[in-house]
Amino acid sequence: MTAFVLAFGGGAAVGSIQRYEAPAAPAQAALAGDAAAAFAPLPPAAAPEVGAPPAPSAPASVPARALAEARKAIEGTLARGQTLAEALSSHGVSAEPIFTIVREMSPAFDFRYSMPGDRFRVELGADGRVERFHYERSASERYELVRDGEVFSTRHHKPQILRRQARIAGVVRTSLHAAVEELGETPALAEDFAKIFAWDVDFSRGARRGDEFSILYERLYTVDEGGSESYARPGQILAARYTTGGEELSAVYFETARGHGAYYRPDGSPVERQFLKAPVEYSRISSSFTKARLHPILKIWRPHLGIDYAAPRGTPVWSVANGKVIFKGYQGGYGNLVKVRHASGYVSYYAHLSRFAPGLRVGQRVSQKQVLGQVGSTGLSTGPHLCFRLTKEGDFVNPATLHAAGGEPLPRALQARFKQHSGQLMAALDPRPLVVTNEAL
Question: Which end of the chain has a smaller Cβ tally under 10 Å, C or N?
Fold first, then answer.
């Protein structure tokens, strides 16, 4: 076992990484793709100038280093319900380079098979043309597009993958993301951690100073042809604990069938609940659920039967639960509105949207946290925000005080195996020096 301890001044935060060096096993035919199909959902973007002369090539006297510095690199991760075209467009990439990527990559990969969590990186030259494109479906499957003059070549990498267990633990000083990065990990691990407790903690409002966390997870390493290992990224979170305001939340990952798992509390109850804490990442709550509010436009007192989340225009808005779209369109003061019917007689409202998610239609089934549209200011609105409402059997209820049911409990036949599994992982989360072995985990 190799141990790393990271301490921060003033005793405000202490973190540690324990890495278990254990033997690990390594974790194509190209898919024919239709570039137009992957490109079709692209949101409005600035069109390239028709007939504009090509950008002049750099003179031979310009050093190669200066050319490299002139490149613009953009990277990101696909969100649920998001296409590559939408993701690139949201980062400011114009239509022409997006179409180039989809067209040139089509012999190697069909972007219609993209998945949430896929990662991308595009390098654009000073003339705005694609120089290099990197697409990672997982640490074990990567695609690369490289320009050589006017010709592109594609590469498909499937390196050997090693999985090793590690643990980090620390205290939040400014944000969860910052605390995780101080311990030497990527923001992706913080995002995955936040998703586990999204039903209990609204991390978009910011973690509290002094909150404590502990994460047991896999670290994925790639092995090159020479046998050298390099850290690729964090993998599956195996167990997690978060303490906030005196409340301790814990979760362990458990597979009920090979390849199919979910997070459960140590007592075997599911972490997942019917509704998420919030439908959008927001900066503040501008209006709460109340029976009497002075309307900012109409200047009359009347009930405000929802929650207004202030957020920048274009911020993704997602469904708080699984359900079916029953309305999509413009409706009076709501402006652009989506309504989703859920189990147990609930209906959720998402109002004032600037635009709807591409392809969203009435009758479509949506999953929890699937993007429905973007924050806007349509209808009776004084600025960009999401008005979120929820009804139960037709009556408006306060989403902030809702205590909805959880997911499916563990089958009785699996409870004994889960108890042993949970006990081992929770012991590994203990902040004291670890003495467990890989075999025990």
Answer: N
